[in-house]
Amino acid sequence: MEDHISVTSLIIVLVAAFLTPILLKRFRLHFLPVVVAEIIVGLIIGQSGFNLIEPNEWLDILSTLGFIFLMFLSGLEIDFSIFKSGKRKKMLNGRPEPHRFGVAVIIFIFILVLSYLISLALSLAGLVGNAFFMTLVISTISLGIVVPTLKESELMRSTIGQIILLVAVIADLVTMILLAVFVSFYEEEGNMWLLLLLFVAGVGLYFLGKFFKNQTFFETLSTGTVQIGMRAVFTLIMILVGLSESLGAENILGAFLAGVLVSLLSPNKEMVQQLDSFGYGFLIPIFFVMIGVELDIWGLFSNPSVVLLIPLLFLGLLLSKLIPVMVLKKWYDWRTVAGSGFLLTSTLSLVIAAAKIGERIGVIDGEMASSLILLAIIACIFTPVLFKQFFPIAENAEEKKRLKIIGANQITMPLTKEFAEEGYEVYLYHARPNHSGELPGSPDFTVEKLESYAIEELQSHGVFDSEVLVISTNDDELNTNIALEAADSEIENIITKVEAPTNQAMLKEKGINVFSTIFSSRAMMKAMIASPYIADIFATREEGLMEVPLTNQEFHGMKLRDFPFFGDTIIVRIYRGNESIIPHGDTELQLEDRLIVTGNHENISELEYLLE
Length: 612
Prior knowledge:
25 helices
């Protein structure tokens, strides 16, 4: 009978987890994070609702494993490449952009200090018991909410997006470590020095993992039924979780550390997707549904002090983030600053972790733990919505590269549409009356009519204010003259169509890229006859060649075999000045190298971001 009850409860929980995202999609509840919806569904089927679930050993084990795996994925989500300082560019207002890491550290220090002051005030008012513990609760930020929201808003690569992400990453790392230290101090049998053994073991396992990762035989065991990489990850999690518990620390610290180590080892994207699929497809939904099942909402609201405490804590969460982000007012407008503060207020997994740990060690009671979980749910529902309402996303999204094309014809018009779809800010200029206004069926760009192609006319329309300029009229001399004029402007890349060999040579000497329709057609036809598969690389968008410049000092002198990320990309050639280099494992990268790569467009974009 007991087995029957346990299986029935497990089935109900799994069905609830399965139906939750379907219902969210069906009713278009896009503002609600899936994990929060799972907790709400747990409330409905648990003791606050229909009380359909009978707690048992099966659910306890799977829920605990879900919690451990959630902490592992939280550590895995940390991308340490964002700590590297890239080039500081000028913003649209002409001012230099903020130093991302420095500003993020300052903001988090303010968050920590202000969280302590708010916690101290609540403690003096008799609403909370331990001010240090409550400081950790208030200062946490949920990477699981911040990362998807930034991605959805196309802000991940913008300066403000990187600052928000860095603050969240620092908060995740620091609060997790401080929570472990707090537990070690608070528990009588705890010994903070034993935590050092855990980190020493972590460092040792990191170097061991790095050694095995570079072994060729390891790659041969990564496919088919062996999947040695996945086995290594789960072994690492269990070793560090077991070691954490043996040393008197929390098991989630070991899981989080395992995630951090795997992230540092730069796993391939396919493995990360498999881990995400397993975690968020099975174990983690069980954990979040069970959080709701065990939460007694009606019992909470029967206590007047809790009714007062939850709004005060929510206000404390808001103030602890909105006031520190005022540092950003030096560079951004009020709406951007306020939106950033609201997004940083979102908190979930670490608050739930802290609530469960605090209840276990006796620093808070069950009622307070439930209050903190409810607080996390409220914060995750409202703060992403407030972020979207306040943050001027269109103005702060990734800056698009400007591409201006002179001459509307059968070649340039399809190219204009393709580059507009790939995220370029595209302008197409023409001096023919039969192509005026917006191009029918292409809302991504507008064809602008010129009176003529005279230099003065082009200047008055700001044609030379661009990163890339393509000149493709049907007049060779006109193209040559415009290109020579454009060479005096600060344009990164000037491309012009010229058929005359003498003009081609002159323009190339001035650093202008030249193409000839006759030569290009002949070369492509020759390639198709002699090597049709090689010709496909040039003709297919999905497998085309792209140039990625190296401007990040971090990778100067690094051998290709030691490079942390290539994903599904292959380096075909490296151009260094006028030298063409065939790459191999021992090839050392140098600043200003131009890497010619082919592969998945998403991975090439990541590579571009890493090397810039």
